[in-house]
């Protein structure tokens, strides 16, 4: 039973119209209270920054076990994975690739990733008109990460189809999830085969994870799920960060000019892109005890959505939050989550996105929309399907 003071909303945050533009709904939810019960999905959401950040950092009261998605049956299938476990099990899984993604290892990758970005960007710029999502954002992360894992790039299309379907399954069992389930299931096994020891190049993350199983750090049955988690988590997130970022910049010639003039702005601008258009809009948790915010109490065992996309636009935290601001440097945004589950690949994502932006900034004086962008709707990921642009070349 909900108390009479409980803020309640019957909005469906997974409805097409809301996914297309969730910001007015986020504003309503933030105004309703620090925690809001969504009657349609029988779950709670945290729409404000302070509570999202605190809950992300509080795995004892906000567990990820059987709860990162909204549907109980689908959560069961994720059981024991890095995203869906709590410490101490979580930390063992997370530890397996922590060295491969540590600043030291990433520093050694920066030059190679920069070179790859230039090789991809140069011919596109020469063409003058191209689709940012199809020709660039969907090509780059998969080639970088497939090589880091040591898996054949021939699997690219499978990986991308799997990632989109997989992210849909974190939402409710709506039409989008139902359509995604057969895709996710078919590709699940195909990807497992591609990640078998024989199919992986030596020296990559794949080998590191198989070795961890040989040493008994993790079980043999955890190898493929762990690799698949890193692969999938690194796709639509980075793809949409690049796509949304160039969408924001293509509409703001003054921002592009500022970046061309001061490359020191590239890292903070990428953070501002993640704040404004967070690729991961929501992940869920389950309360392990009643949690009180002012006069609102979320009961024990409640499913709670951390609305990263809303928290990052909360005026209680950010001045003029709906404005994309080149020099904002939004420290503390939750676009990568926070706490024990805070993004394991954020260092790599930053290198990839900054490499793409730098390769474009070196060559392009003006970037403009060449047609209307097309939004892609996914239950938890925000991004575009298509972003046609025209570029005008010019050295800095
Ligand atoms: C701009 C790109 C990216 C964004 C916006 C992003 C966002 C996120 C977010 C919000 C979470 C937190 C999930 C939670 O709290 O339940 C997360 C977790 C995770 N991310 Fe990323 N991510 C990105 C890129 C990557 C890349 C490139 C990799 C792999 C190399 C990666 C691997 C992971 C993994 C393994 C987790 C689970 C961590 C855990 O549960 O301990 N991500 N990411």
UniProtKB/TrEMBL annotation:
PROSITE patterns: CYTOCHROME_P450 (PS00086). Keywords: Heme, Iron, Metal-binding, Monooxygenase, Oxidoreductase. GO terms for molecular function: 4-methoxybenzoate monooxygenase (O-demethylating) activity; heme binding; iron ion binding. Its EC number is 1.14.99.15. It is an enzyme of class 1 (oxidoreductase). InterPro entries: Cyt_P450, Cyt_P450_B, Cyt_P450_CS, Cyt_P450_sf. Belongs to the cytochrome P450 family. This is Cytochrome p450 CYP199A2.
């Amino acid at each position: 039973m909900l108390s009479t003071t409980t803020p309640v909303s019957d909005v469906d945050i997974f409805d097409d119209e809301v996914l297309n533009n969730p910001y007015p709904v986020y504003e309503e939810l933030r105004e309703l209270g620090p925690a809001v019960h969504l009657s349609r999905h029988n779950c709670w959401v945290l729409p404000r920054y302070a509570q999202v950040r605190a809950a992300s950092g509080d795995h004892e009261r906000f567990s990820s076990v059987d709860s990162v998605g909204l549907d109980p049956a689908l959560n069961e299938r994720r059981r024991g994975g890095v995203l869906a476990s709590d410490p101490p099990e979580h930390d063992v899984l997370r530890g397996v690739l922590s060295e491969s993604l540590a600043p030291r290892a990433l520093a050694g990758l920066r030059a190679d990733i920069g070179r790859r970005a230039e090789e991809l960007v140069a011919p596109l710029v020469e063409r003058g008109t191209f689709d940012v999502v199809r020709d660039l954002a969907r090509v780059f992360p998969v080639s970088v990460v497939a090589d880091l894992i040591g898996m054949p790039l021939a699997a690219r299309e499978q990986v991308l189809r799997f990632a989109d379907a997989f992210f849909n399954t974190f939402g409710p069992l709506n039409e989008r999830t139902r359509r995604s389930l057969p895709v996710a299931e078919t590709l699940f096994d195909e990807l497992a085969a591609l990640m078998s020891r024989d199919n992986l190049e030596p020296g990559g993350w794949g080998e590191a994870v198989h070795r961890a199983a040989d040493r008994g750090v993790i079980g043999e049955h955890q190898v493929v799920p762990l690799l698949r988690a890193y692969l999938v988590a690194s796709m639509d997130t980075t793809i949409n960060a690049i796509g949304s970022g160039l969408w924001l910049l293509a509409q703001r010639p003054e921002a592009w000019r500022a970046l061309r003039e001061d490359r020191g702005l590239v890292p903070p601008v990428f953070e501002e892109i993640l704040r404004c258009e967070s690729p991961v809009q929501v992940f869920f948790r389950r309360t392990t005890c009643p949690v009180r915010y002012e006069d609102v109490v979320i009961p024990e065992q409640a499913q709670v959505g951390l609305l990263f996309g809303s928290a990052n636009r909360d005026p209680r935290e950010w001045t003029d939050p709906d404005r994309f601001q080149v020099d904002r440097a939004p420290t503390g945004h939750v676009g990568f989550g926070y706490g024990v589950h805070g993004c394991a690949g954020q260092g790599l994502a930053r290198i990839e996105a900054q490499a793409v932006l730098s390769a474009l900034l070196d060559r392009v004086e003006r970037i403009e929309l060449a047609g209307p962008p097309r939004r892609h709707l996914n239950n938890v990921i925000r991004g575009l399907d298509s972003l046609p642009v025209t570029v005008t070349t010019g050295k800095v």
